[in-house]
Amino acid sequence: MKIGCHVSIAGGIDNSVIRAEELGCNTMQIFSKNAATWQEKILDQEEVKRFKRNLKNSILDIDPVFIHTSYLINLASPLDELYFKSINSFIEEMKRANLLLAVPYLITHPGAHIDRGEEYGIQRIIRALNIILEKSADLNLKTMILLENTAGSGTHLGYTLGQLQRMMEGAKDRKRIGICFDTCHAFAAGYDLSNREGVEKTIGFNICQ
């Protein structure tokens, strides 16, 4: 069984592996930079080497490792300046994930439409994902995008599995997009995960046997 948590990268990304081991994790999630700033982190080659070495030498075999994007990214924004800034920042995050991990996964919140409505926001996200997929393919990035379901606060999209499905179906390269299912967010959004019946109904198949 894989058990992990989000681990701090304070003092260097390589330190996250040490912290995960101290917590007894055999999988983990990290940021690749300060999640509250637009400033892109330039990863030092020695830091990358230490991170990879720490993973390779981990006695707990920490794998897979997931990277979460900055909270500032909004792929549904109606403001073009923020929209394209988010797309560019997302691609930089993909580059770092590709550099750090042999099998890179990048988790992201889909975005918030602000005041334009669900349909507008979903189409905006689909457009952004296709731009990102095309540009990252040109860069030969292996990073797989994982859309995380949200709690549905404010105008944030992705709080229903149907919304996430539409985003994925709109992507031109669907094999490079998956879902990160956050159970806490799902419960807050109205999915009953308190019993077996609710879990089976939510997921759509029997995972309890």
Defining key terms:
209 residues; alpha/beta; TIM Barrel; 6-stranded parallel beta sheet; two-stranded antiparallel sheet; 7 helices; 8 strands; globular; AP_endonuc_F2_Zn_BS; nuclease; DNA-(apurinic or apyrimidinic site) endonuclease activity
Secondary-structure map with pairings?
Blueprint: E1 4-6, H1 14-22, E2 27-31, H2 45-56, E3 65-68, H3 80-100, E4 105-108, E5 111-112, H4 118-138, E6 144-148, E7 156-157, H5 161-170, E8 177-180, H6 183-188, H7 196-203
Helix pairs in contact: 1-2, 3-4, 4-5
Explain this structure:
With 209 residues, this protein is α/β, with parallel strands linked by helices. It has a domain at 64-202: TIM Barrel, CATH 3.20.20.150. Helices cover 42% and strands 14% of the residues. It contains 7 helices and 8 strands. It has helices at 14-22, 45-56, 80-100, 118-138, 161-170, 183-188, 196-203; strands spanning 4-6, 27-31, 65-68, 105-108, 111-112, 144-148, 156-157, 177-180. A 6-stranded parallel sheet has the order 1-2-3-4-6-8, with helices on one face. Strands 5-7 form a two-stranded antiparallel sheet. β1, α1 and β2 form a beta-alpha-beta unit. α3 (80-100) packs across α4 and α4 crosses α5 (161-170). The longest helix is centred in the middle third of the chain and has 21 residues, at 80-100. The radius of gyration is 17 Å and the shape is globular. The model is unreliable at 205-209 (pLDDT under 50). InterPro entries: AP_endonuc_2, AP_endonuc_F2_Zn_BS, Xyl_isomerase-like_sf, Xyl_isomerase-like_TIM-brl. Its cofactor is Zn(2+). Pfam families: AP_endonuc_2.
